[in-house]
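Just wondering, can you check both lines?
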Amino acid sequence: MKEESFNYTGDSNPGRILNPEQYPTKQYATKADVAKLFQVTTRTIDAWMARGLLPYLKIGRTARFSLADIETYLRHNCGIAGRFLKP
């Protein structure tokens, strides 16, 4: 029996719904990854999440962070010595 390979381009198989080229992938980090990035504990990340200081996605009981969304949020909402970071 011949195995059928999946073609996700959408052009040669119009019945396909998802086309990965239309949905660029994002890099998601765990709470431990973000804590390591900011050199803080995971409890600090929990506190920042509770205060709304970090954007995150909640999937079931786990939290995932888009590093691009965190960078954008920090650029627009945080400053150094009263001056906002330039985009």
Remarks:
- Residues 28-84 form a domain with the Arc Repressor Mutant, subunit A fold (CATH 1.10.10).
- The first helix runs from residue 31 to 38.
- The chain is about 35% helix and 15% strand.
- Confidence is low (pLDDT under 50) at residues 4-10.
